[in-house]
Amino acid sequence: MKDLDAIDRRIIKALQEDGTITHNDLAERVGASSASCWRRIKALEAAGVLGRTVRLVNPQAIGRGVNVMCNVRMNSYTLDVRQAFEKFVRDRAEIIECFSMSGDWDYLMRVVVPDVEAYNHFMMHSLLNHPSVAGASSHFALAHTKYSTALPV
Q: Which of 18, 44, 74, 82 could, after both became Cys, cross-link 50 (CB 3.0–4.6 A)?
C-alpha cells in the first residue's frame, strides 16, 4: 500500500503516538469522520500497513534495564542450521530483536536482561552452547539516547 494519502498518513502518525486513541478523537485529529477513520484503519490493517496494538513497557520498571547488542557468527550457513538458530532466538524471551546481517557478523541481537550476571549466564549456558554458533561479541549500552517505535510517514 504505497499510495497513502494525507489522511492515511495522519492516521498512521497518530496511531504510532497513541494506539489507544478513540475513533472519535482520531477523526478529530486527522480531519475525517469517525466512520471514515474506522474504514481506513481496517484497510490499512488488511494491507499489512498496521499491525497489532501493544503497550510499551519501561524496562527499568520491570528489572530489565541492561541492554546488550550481541553480534553472532554462525559456524555453518545451511538452511537447517539457520532455521535452528532462528528458532532458538524466537524461543528466548531476553532476545527482543534479531536481525540477519551482511558483513562480518551473521546476526545482530538486542538482549535485555536484569544485570551483567544474567547476561553472562545467557551467553555461557545458552548462546555459546548452541551448536550453530561459532562466536559472539557483546556491546553493553551505557545509555538510551533515542528510542522510538514510530516510523516516518
A: 44
- Using DSSP, state whether 36 is helix, strand or coil: helix
**3-class SS of residue 107:** strand
CATH of the domain at 125: 3.30.70.920
**Does pTM surpass 0.85?**
yes
Half-sphere exposure of 57 (CA within 13 A, CB side): 10
As a whole number of angstroms, the distance between CA 16 and CA 153 comes to 10
Amino acid at 59: P
* Residue 1 binned pLDDT confidence (cut-offs 50, 70, 90): low
21-23-24 Cα angle (round to 5): 100
The answer to whether 41 and 11 have CB atoms below 8 angstroms apart is yes
The number of distinct structural domains making up the chain is 2
